[in-house]
Specification:
Layout: E1 5-9, E2 16-21, E3 24-27, H1 28-38, E4 43-47, E5 63-67, H2 71-89, E6 92-99, E7 106-113, E8 128-134, H3 136-139, H4 157-165, E9 170-176, H5 178-186, H6 192-206, H7 212-218, H8 231-239, E10 242-244, H9 252-256
Parallel strand pairs: 1-4, 5-9, 5-10, 8-9
Antiparallel strand pairs: 2-3, 6-7, 7-8
Helix pairs in contact: 6-7
Length: 261
């Protein structure tokens, strides 16, 4: 394991570097983060608010995963990335997948076309950038009063996966809550409240030779068979570097969010 790279960035040290990100120039510490990620090292960056940590999500070879403790921060980061893509790369929003079940509505997928081609960073040489939102509130299923699925009102990962598979030359930024990332990697993304019960019953039923797929299906979580359909999202979660932000350890719940890490 490579050594940890640690950067403490004070306002007076926000000097410019020499690397171009489309129409922008990276700051010196952003170049250091880029180099650390490229060499496979972990990095801890302590910087002032507005110092430019979010730009880290644009410094990977093919994409980045951002983990945030709640939906408010997910949406705030989505807006921040939108601004960076438009100003630095001249990107235009060309397609979206909207979840209209929540107050908002919320774009669970945005695809941008990059206009400012060229530069030293891989993202500036990509034709398109996708920003994916993964949260139990936005990608889960809904249920009626008797606990039955309401299939016509669902916004599921399958739709996101199909859109991503149809795109080429794509840089993917995945924004997720840590528990959502963990559930997707485990294949239990449909109903977060039911996952614990499903796991409990699966453990008890395994001694009797019951079907794991059937138990997961009964509780409305993804079955083992359905995991193949999540391969694209799981690939991004497992392959791309992770940016972990605002995961403060206030209590047991926040500590559990570090499980995916």
């Amino acid at each position: 394991m490579e050594a940890l790279a640690s950067f403490t960035v004070k306002p007076v040290y926000l000097e410019e570097g020499s690397t171009r990100l489309g129409l922008w120039t990276l700051r010196r510490f952003q170049e250091e983060v880029r180099d650390a990620v490229a060499s496979g090292r972990d990095a801890v960056v302590t910087a002032v608010t507005g110092g430019g940590k979010t730009v880290s999500l644009l410094l990977g070879d093919e994409g980045f995963v951002g983990l945030y403790p709640n939906n408010a921060l997910l949406l705030d980061q989505q807006r921040g990335i939108d601004r960076i893509l438009r100003l630095a790369l001249g990107a235009d929003l060309v397609s979206r997948l909207v979840d209209r079940r929540v107050d908002g509505p919320v774009d669970v997928l945005r695809v941008y076309e990059v206009k400012a081609q060229g530069g030293e960073l891989p993202i500036a040489r990509r034709r398109k950038v996708a920003v994916v939102l993964l949260s139990g509130r936005y990608i889960g299923y809904e249920y009626d009063e008797e606990g039955r699925l309401i299939p016509k009102r669902e916004v599921i990962l399958k739709e996101i996966v199909e859109r991503l598979q149809n795109e080429r030359d794509l840089y993917v930024i995945t924004l997720a809550t840590p528990d959502t990332a963990l559930m997707i990697m485990m294949g239990a993304y449909r109903s977060f409240e039911r996952v614990g019960y499903a796991v409990h019953d699966a453990i008890l039923a395994s001694a009797e030779g019951a079907s794991l797929d059937q138990i997961l299906s009964d509780y409305g979580v993804a079955t083992v068979k359905e995991l193949s359909g999540l391969a694209v999202i799981r690939q991004y979660l497992l392959k791309h570097p992770w940016f972990i932000d605002e995961c403060h350890l206030y209590g047991d719940y926040e500590a559990s969010l570090l499980l995916p890490v």
